[in-house]
Known about the structure:
- Helix 1 crosses helix 3 and helix 5 runs parallel beside helix 7.
- This protein is an alpha/beta fold.
- A nine-stranded mixed beta sheet has the order 4-3-5-2-1-6-10-11-9, with helices on both faces. Strands 7-8 form a two-stranded antiparallel ribbon.
- The chain has one domain (5-235): Carbamate kinase (3-Layer(aba) Sandwich).
- It has helices at residues 26-41, 58-63, 68-92, 114-122, 140-150, 184-189, 197-205, 220-225, and strands at residues 5-10, 45-50, 97-101, 110-111, 126-130, 155-160, 165-166, 178-179, 181-183, 210-214, 232-235.
- The longest helix has 25 residues, at 68-92.
- Helices cover 37% and strands 19% of the residues.
- The chain is built from eight helices and eleven strands.
Amino acid sequence: MKYKRILLKLSGEALQNKKTGHAHDPEVLATIAQQFKALLAEGAEIAVVVGGGNIFRGLAGVQDGTDRTTGDAMGMLATVINAMAIQSSLENAGIQTRVMTAISMPAVAEPFIRRKAVRHMEKGRVVIFGGGTGNPYFTTDSAAALRASEINADVLMKATKVDGIYTADPMIDKTATRFDKITYAEALNKQLKIMDAAAFSLCMENDIPIVVFDFFKEGEILRVFKGEDAGTRVGH
C-alpha cells in the first residue's frame, strides 16, 4: 500500500441530498461507511475533516448581515453536526469512531488533543474532526492541512466530484486536460485552485502530498490509498 495514515477532507455539500435539499443524504452516509470499511480492512488509519457548507457558510452569513466572526462560529458548529452525522453512520456499520472538536463541547465530542487522536487511530478508530481550527477566518481546508500536519498524516486526500485536477473546470471547458501528478510549485504558478492559500502552504511546508480524487467513483478511494493511478497527486 502507498499510504498508512490518511486524512480525508470531505465537504459538507458532499453529504447533501441534492433532490430534497436535506442536509444529509442517508445513501451518501452509508456509502462513506462502506468505503471506510474497505480502507480499514487494508490497514488504513483514518481521520476526517468535514466542512459545513450544506448547513451554513460563514461568508454567506456575512452577506445576510451577520458579522464575520459570528458567521464563522456558526459555520464551525455546522461542521460538528456533520461530524456527528458521519459518526452515527459509521457506527451503524460497526466502525468504531471518535468525534473530536476544536471548540469545547464535552457533552457531544472529545476536545482535540493530538496524542489522543493519534492513539485512537492506532486502535483502529476513525477520528472525525469537527469545529474547523476553532478560529474565525480559517477554512476547513486550513483545518484539514493543520490536522494532517499534527497527526503526521502520510497524505491529505481531498474528496471532490471530479477525478483530479484539470487545466480548467472540466464541467465548463470540455478541452480541459487532467494532471496525473503536479508539483506544489507548478500548481502555484498555474494558479490552480486546489485549496486555499494557507492550507496549500501548510501542506507544502510540511511535505504532505495532496491527492484530489472523485469520491463518488466506486473503489476510487481504495485505489488512491494503494497508490494506483487515480486522482491527481500534488507533491514536491
